Amino acid sequence: MERWLRMILVVALLISGLGWKGEEANASDAYDDLRSKWTFMLTGGSTYDQNDSAINAAIQRITTSAQSAWNTMSPSMGSSDPWNSTTNSAAIVQGYGLIYQMALAYRTEGSTLEGNSQLLSAIKTALDWMYTNRYNTSGGYGNWWDWEIGAPNHLLNIVTLLYDELTSVQITNWMNVVEYYSPVAGQLHNATTPAVATGANLAWKARIVALRGILVKDSAKLLGARNALSPLFLYVTDGDGFYIDGSFIQHTAQPYNGGYGVALMMSIGDLVQLLNGSIWAVSDPNLSRMYEWVFSAFEPLLYNGKMMDMVRGREISRAVNASGRNAISALIRISQFAPTVERNAIRSIVKSVMDTNTSSDYYLASSIEMIELAREILQNASPRGDLYLNKQYPGMDKAVHLRPGFGFGLSMYSSRVMNYEKTNNENLHGWHTAEGMTYLYNGDWSQYADYWPTVDAFKLPGTTVERNTTQAAKQYNTKGWVGGVAVGDTYGVSGMSIKTQDKTLEAKKSWFMLDNEIVALGAGISSSDSPVVETIVENRKLNDSGNNAFMINGSNQSTSLTQGYQVHTNTSWMHLAGTGSGADIGYYFPTSPTLRTMREARTGAYSDISQTGSTTPITKNYLTMWLDHGIVPSNASYQYVLLPGYTSSQVSAYASNPDIQVLSNNANVQAVREKNIGIVGANFWENAVETVAVNGEPYLTSNKKSSVMVKETPTEAVIAISDPTQVLNGEIEVELYRNGSLVLENDSGIVVDQLSPSIKLRVNVTGANGKGFEARIKLANRAYWKFDENSGSTAADSTGNGHTGTLYNASFTSGGFAGGALSLNGTSSYVSVPDAAELDFTNKFKLDTWIRFSTGAGTTTQKIIEKQGATLPYSVRISNAGKIGLYWNGTWRESNAISWNNNTWYHLVITHNGSAIDFQLDGASRGVVSNTESTFTNNENFYIGRGRAGTESWFNGQIDELKLILP
Fold it and tell me: pLDDT digit string (tens) for 631-657?
């Protein structure tokens, strides 16, 4: 629907811009007011404190730039750049840019060039010369953008600043040229069949038409410009514009939040603020979406005062990175007209970013007005603090994972999104920037400064590539399975099936973004081409000396920049000392593979990656790490874990006892479990029923291509599902092998079919465009003792139901199956839990626990639990015949005989579903006994590790993760 509304609005704005003269009679005095307001926005007015250090520095910067620009006009403009080119249209923009610097100084309060008559004369001469020789209605060579957007943008600002100093003839002539090239906001290329302007181009055009309307006092132009904004406020599902997930696309299929997206926000923000309070004020109710974009499209991608490079497109090949400063300016501008709640939130973002990036960096190149606004925010706003977020961008195949101390970015591409752009001969080495490249932002604030002209562009971190090969620009991935899902906007899993247009190399790649760790898996890596296939783990810029400490498996490595590449076998872990506080990085390799590393100094220039870039050589030092899959690999794979901010000792400890468990890594399913936070993530690559097991037992099943993540606590499970292919019609069926009791929340599109004995749900993903769906299910756990206390005399019930147990002669041990465990001596130790209604069961019952015998495994009767009483409601034991037993309604029901071992962890599950009792050990049934009887209840205590007096049958060993469940 919104796509059709966009088209209707574009037609409407074309009509309104071309002829309608409504409201002009009531607006005659308002034009001068708007011109004065725009002058203030350009200059900062005249009331600022010129002695303030930041303001004074800005005045000096403006003055110096103007003087330098003035100097380029001598001895005659036609003999020096930018004045001498008659074929490069960018020179016209550059020329007007220099004149604007001069005009700004002329109107800046406190500049030594303020009101300088000679400067004014030079400016007028330059403007007349440009009109006669360069920018007039007989031009049009080169890039259309220069004629329709770049040049008029500067010219309109110049005329605004010097309006009272110019003749009516001059203003008319120059405004006629602007009208010739940009008559209507909604169109590009003034021709018989103009193109429709979209995205940032439409926003720029709207501002140009509006400013011209102010200067020539044409209400229709102002109305047309205002109305032209409406299509920009509508979410798109293809092509240019903002997507509902916060993605921003320009040039059909190029991610550009940090480039054209920022430009769009600045242009719209300026125009909304300029027209605010006038009869042309923007009143479109969808203006509120600008505030949504702040939080979804910009805040997650703005790190250390810069927009992440993966959303800057070809701008990464430019020496000056103004993306962060421009984004901050856009946010400041939007905060001026945002409603109170959004205004305060945006101001908090600005304060937090400027506090971490230091305000001086922002002041160095910002306007005086913006410096004043930023300073007020720094003084009065409350900081936001660190973000704890996982953000998936299915509209542009990107993902972000944010934690205090680091930000992780993931750049992918698909059959919907192109790989990279090198328009205007920029970004010449962008070959692999979207092939799973990973970015790690941390305390090394300058990591990506001068990165692109010096990095080995054949070896970008996160990518799997054919060695030293390039990739053409504006290409689509031949695979559509690219995307992921976040659970609770906190943890996420992303994946990319990749096969380029011109190579046989293909791979399935997944990234599991957990807490302070990112797990990277690769599988199905195959190629019949001749180059060696490599997966690049890291390519990190080092300090200026290149001597960052580097450790492998506890051994310090050479810091020589001339040692050549090194081969390291049986690599369990690596640690790289960072440049800056908190910038250390750890790397853990679960399979202890052979790694290759290279520490070297690399020299390049911006002219290597951009035709107009500087030829000045730049040298930076790098450490590169990669896995060699060999020539013509078949179903090769890899596993590694990034550990941002870890010290070497922390990495060593992690490698000895990792928090993660790789559950599956093949071309059908890639899955990982984070043991400490109850996360399981899985990418299902095929339309087939596939099951992920945890500790050998089924945990999660999906029947179609999907990305699934589960966050499980003792009381509930949150299940998140998406269709990364974005083409599935109908439903994805997912099963979680847990007992649920209640649906607490579920997104529209999810149907929960079953809660017990497992949770089954269906998700309708038709037209979802990669969106994630969530269901929150209350688990049927009545009590759950994790035994992770390590010390003390009580065992907590993790469900929150309050079934705290008291230890008698028992203790906690750190050697549990998952964390700690309860340790029992077999003669006098146990746990007693007071009676409660949740501990009574009648016709259904489930026990789920882990046990390990110290002695007497299967040869002496040992009780796991028992509900006390003169007559027993229920009890669980391992008999001296090796049988699992459930005492139920006065009778022992038993499994088949089992051979047990001491000092071995066993997963014991007993389920009475009302009709039969199933005895399971380590995921396998050891006997099913029919039983429809109900047992009774009482008011006695519940014991762990013993029976009642006289029949204690003490347990000798450890018990862990004990759950009582109503199935």
Answer: 999 999 999 999 999 999 999 999 999
DSSP string, 428-488: TT-TTTTSSEEEEESS-TTTTTT-TTTS-TTS-TT-EEETT----SS-B-S---EEEEEET
Strands 706-712 and 716-722: antiparallel
What does the alpha-carbon distance between residue 942 and residue 832 come to, in Å, rounded to a whole number? Answer: 6
3-state SS assignment for residue 880: coil
Smallest Cα–Cα separation from 287: which of 275, 305, 302, 304? 275
Residue type, 715: T
**CA distance linking residue 417 with residue 413, whole number of Å:** 5
Contacts with 893 (C-beta within 8 Å, 6 or more apart), sequence order? 885, 886, 887, 917, 929, 931
What does the pLDDT look like over 613-636, one tens digit per residue? 999 999 999 999 999 999 999 999
Query: 420 catalytic, yes or no?
Result: no
Encoding tokens for residue 435? 């092939």
Dihedral sign for Cα 112, 113, 114, 116, please.
Answer: positive
Q: What is the DSSP string of 4-23?
A: HHHHHHHHHHHHHHHH--TT
Assess whether the previous peptide bond of 757 is cis (omega < 30° from 0).
Answer: yes
Task: Give me the catalytic one of 181, 260, 393, 640.
Answer: 260
- The b/e string for 319-346 (b: 16+ C-beta within 10 A; e otherwise) is eebebbbbbbbbbbbbbebbeeebbebb
Q: For the ranges 11-15, 30-34, 494-498, which has the lowest average pLDDT?
A: 11-15
d(C-alpha 937, C-alpha 873), whole Å: 6
Q: What is the pLDDT of residues 396-410, one digit of tens each?
A: 999 999 999 999 999
pLDDT of residue 87: 81
In the 8-state DSSP scheme, what is residue 340?
A: H
The per-residue pLDDT for 9 is 38
| Cα–Cα dist 125/63, whole Å | 19
Q: Using DSSP, state whether 390 is helix, strand or coil.
A: strand
CA 654 to chain centre: 25
Q: Position 878: which residue type? A: I
Q: Which two tokens stand for residue 827?
A: 């003669």
The mean pLDDT of 528-551, rounded to a whole number, is 98
DSSP E strands: which ranges in 675-804?
A: 679-684, 690-694, 697-702, 706-712, 716-722, 731-736, 740-746, 750-754, 759-764, 772-779, 781-785, 794-795
Q: Any residues with CB less than 8 A from the CB of 672 and at least 6 apart, and which?
A: 493, 510, 512, 514, 519, 521, 660, 661, 662, 663, 680, 681, 682
Q: Residue 909's closest CA among 887, 890, 925, 931?
A: 925
For residue 130 the two structure tokens come to 């440009």
